[in-house]
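Subject: sequence -> structure tokens, single chain

Hey, anyone have a minute? Need the predicted structure for the following. Not urgent.
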Amino acid sequence: MARDISDVKQVETGLWKAERSYRSLVENIPDVIFSTDKDGKIFHVHLPAATFYGYEAQEIISRSYTSFVFAEDIDSVRTEVKQALRDRSEFTKGVQYRVVSKDGHLNWVEANLHMQFDPQGMCTRTDVIIRDIGDLKKAETELRQSNRELKKAIERRRSLSKRLIELLEKDRRQIAMELHDRMGQSLSVLRTGFGAIAKRLEKMDGDILELVKSVEEKTVQELLNLKNISYELRMNMLDHLGLVPSIRTLITDFENSSNLRIRFFTKDIPREIDPDKLLALYRIAQEALLNIVRHAHATDIYISLIKQDNKVLLSVEDNGVGYDKQNMTVTSDGKGLLGIYIMKERAAQVGGGLMIESQIGKGTQVITEVPL
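Reply:
Had a minute. Here:
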């Protein structure tokens, strides 16, 4: 009695080829692969050459999968496995922990688990692929260290920048006091002296009298100029009047001393603002106007100061000559861009930012954003 078993042989041949391909694939995988039974005991293992474990295959068979896990990481690994068992999850990926090699070294690995369950939901087998991620962890550690060092460098720079601005304001106050106390007193004495001389010369030479009166008038004018400079340097009005009136006064001073037309728009600016932020916004507006007077050759300036959400937006725009930001390294008078640098530092010190937009022949706009 004979039976045709050609189909059976074809299936067996196919299975044999598939098994051979599978073994060839597994044997060439650089990762560690092991399988555990329902009790978590290893019954099969694939160890590539020079593995980080340092064990031979026979030294691993029949041991628990946790035997090689670093003691501090065992709880977290068990938690992941228990969660997968509760969820009856066939695949669990990205379990990271440290394994202890035969010579005692720690190695970071990442495990991907494939669990098989019987009809009652019991896990009968787990296949685990373990990949060495030591280089990745080292890179992460180095990156964290670099970030810490970068933060320290930023804090040092911020501290130095704050100190620079504090010294600048201190110098302004000292100069204002010197101008007011010394130069102001001297000019006042000169004014009084010229007035006395003018009275004595009233009945004498008219030309000499006119000369003395002319000098007296110039002295009075210089005294007023000195008071204005001292006033701007000390900025007491900023504390008493607030930001909007102070900028209006600033605008009036610039209009009186130049041919500029300045339009000012403001909306919803609160009366009470943090003193540091108040000073920063005022000084930025002041510096921007000074730059326009010195370099822009503008005729019109548009200033807006508005509250948007929880921040103050200051914009100073002119119709001047503009400049090429890519090639601009020094100002036209050769003194460098210290003013722009200080404006940016002032904004940064109070948690804000400053942006400058400019095109040759189309003017310049300084935009500052400061949180309240």
